[in-house]
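Write out this protein's structure.
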Amino acid sequence: MKTYTLEALTDKHIGKKGSPNRDAFEYELSMELLGQAIKDARKERHLTQEQLGELVGVKKAQISKLENSLTDARFETIIKVFKALNAKINFNVELLNQKMDIA
C-alpha cells in the first residue's frame, strides 16, 4: 500500500501553495480554527453567546457567525472577543520569499 503525505494530497486535490484554490482553502481553514478557538474559550468560561456578545458589544448572532465561520469579522472585533474572554492573543506574521515590485 502506497502512503501519501497530507501536503501531497492537499497539493493534488486542492492545489499547490500560492494557487488561488489553495489560498482560499487555507483561509477557510484558518477561519474555522479561529471560530473553534472562540467557541472553546467561551465554553471554558461558562458563557453563552449572548453573554459574550454583551461583553463585546455585539449581538448574539455576531458571536454565532464568528464561531461558525459564517462572516469575515473585523480584526478589531476578534481582538475584543478574545479580550472579553481574558485570553492571551498571539499573531504570527511570516514573510514569504517573494519578489515585490514597486511601481
